[in-house]
Amino acid sequence: MNVGIDLISFYTSNYFIELKTLATTRGVDPAKYYIGIGQEKMAIPPPDEDIVTMAANAALPIIKQIDPAQIDLVLFGTESGIDQSKAAAAFVHGMLGLSHRCRAVELKEACYGATAAVHLAMAHVRTKPDSKALVIGSDVARYELGSPGEPTQGCGAVAMIVSSNPRTMKIDLQSGIYTDDVMDFWRPNYRDQALVDGKYSTRVYLHALEEAWKHYQEQTGRSFGDFARFCYHLPFTRMAEKAHERLAKFCGVELAAGDLERQIGDTLFYNRITGNSYAASLYVGLCSLLDRSAEDLGGKRIGMYSYGSGCVAEFFSGTIQPGYCAHLQTARHAKMLAERAELTFRQYEDIYNLRFPTDGGDHEFTRYRTAPFRLAGVKAHKRHYVHSA
Ligand code: HMG
Question: How many Cβ atoms are within 10 Å of 252's Cβ, its own excluded?
């Protein structure tokens, strides 16, 4: 049975800061951000946007394209959870009005959470071929102000329908996995910014890539040349370039001029102007590839590398389905990104320093620009989400 991604949709905040602005204020040469880490803009969520609103806003357009009653599983991968107990999936389930005969669960393993969700959803669909799963990755990447991680912040959500006979990407059964108990990046429950051993994290990411690839190759016998394109987890775009160069070298492949750009260039565009979106980021790269590729990718095999600090990594693959373009959200993605508003440095810092009310009082949040779902406020420690279209 063919199982994989039937529909895919991406959402990010309507606000961003130019990394030129950040560089100027921090006294850093902008070339370090634009060239050294390969980022141009960071998406910043306003106070009435969180992982739940981003997820619901990503999911709504594709939910409208199917019979939502068929969804009997909602899996939500995130590492910026808003509640220690209630799953973000349960909020989204309610906001989208899904069937009560449905499981709704949140998964966590840093940026790997959504990939775990995709594979669990595929196993579910294999046992119940008529069912559909809604898989979400949604995160806000947040580091300390002035830290080396600061220019790699961002936010975004990707929603996917996983089903049999998928219209976008059939995912192969075999994949390569690598897990190791390391402290490269973490966020204790009492902190709202991540802690990271930055340089070490990049080394672990690359080592895990080699290990996951080795396992993938043992399972499948495929080689580097079997892939038309590669999508890598994107903490920043330069990381994917380094990963691709590393994988090619590991496979004994010499990249010719233009190969890097042709094999991964289209996957980087959205991340470069939104920043890291942790669990969503690999799939933001996939959206970017599908939306921007001038070549018809129908029938082509794509290599996918998911990395979550801590760490769990997986190399898997899928084949883009003929006619996939008709089912993409390309026009909506372009409009959303084109209509975003730029923040000044002061506005960015003010939003960053705002603290979520924890006093149990009744707080109504200022209305910013969001897609239909927004976080209207909090009362008695309960978040209040509204559909404001
Ligand atoms: P840093 O240490 O300040 O930067 O921060 P650097 O000194 O290493 O410079 C970065 C690059 O810019 C270097 O290039 C410099 O040479 C270059 P490289 O040697 O790497 O090729 N550079 C310049 N280029 C042009 N003009 C200039 C200039 N100056 C310098 N003037 C670091 C870098 C990655 C450490 C930092 O951004 C960080 O800590 N980021 C957060 C952690 C991270 O993203 N790690 C990635 C792997 S782990 C991962 O992906 C998982 C994650 O998504 C979390 C999860 O799983 O949940 C993070």
Answer: 8
